[in-house]
Amino acid sequence: MTDPASSPAAWPFGPDVTIVDIRAQELRFREPLEKLLANPVVPMSLERIEKKNHGLSGRVVVVCEVGLRSNVAAMYLRADGLDAEHLPGGARALRRDSLT
């Protein structure tokens, strides 16, 4: 396994970006994003984000499995005043990009 900091998937995110992983717990355990990214990863449910019970600050990138739910989560976080975006293609895109 390569060092996450040197993987192709690491480059889009600066060191100040927090990755918010909203995938199901089973997927987070099976395929941790920490193996693909050097950034800090915070596991969280979409429900917590919707209820504004996230405790996040700063710049965040939200990741789900395919990029759909993360887009919704990023919209909620932007409405809360955060600098938030989602990762198009989600964790699948990260896995694919890390193989190339």
TrEMBL record:
GO MF term list: transferase activity
Residues in coiled coil: none
Keywords: Transferase
Record-given protein name: Rhodanese-related sulfurtransferase
Domain Rhodanese: 13-99
Organism per entry: Deinococcus peraridilitoris (strain DSM 19664 / LMG 22246 / CIP 109416 / KR-200)
CDD domains xref list: RHOD (cd00158)
This protein's record includes keyword Phosphoprotein: no
